[in-house]
Amino acid sequence: MRFSEEQIRDIVALKDNLISQIDKHQESIEMLEKNLKILDLILKETSFTKASSLVKNTTAISKSTDTKIPEDTVPIKRGNNGEIIANAYVTADKVSIILDDGMEISEDTPPFKSFFIDRIIGEMKRKDSIDAENGKIQKESVIDYIINKNGSDIREIIIKNYRQKDRINEIINTAGWSLTRMLENIKK
Asked: Which residues in 23-42 are b (16+ Cβ under 10 Å) and which e?
């Protein structure tokens, strides 16, 4: 069976389109898996507890003078190959995103400031500031962030006072997307 050059070009275009769709859907699947993990964490935190175990826990807590707040870990993976590029440690009042040791990314690499800091965290901060001005929340409860660096490279991003569980999902997902794009921009 012989194909014309035009048919071969169409077949190649179709193949490229299929590969592109597979990559797109793979990223969507990974994002959905992350969302499921985060939902599982939220459900685990808010799940029903038997009264008998509450009595045991309160006696254990009262005996202990140094109690730690439970911390959940969510791996942040690179979109195209699933490589873990950071881990998000979620506590009751903050999310700490610690980059993998091999990561060398400056905060000046796009889209970190323009998207993650200004658009995502900045918008949350604007909403919180309005709520603080209107007396809905304390000024100390406004979301804020700290970037810890090693030289010019980002080592850790701490987001304090996220306050709402749905923000955890947005912060972790957009951090993963931003870090993936930053790595792509470095390689260009």
From this structure: eeeeeeebeeebeebbeebb
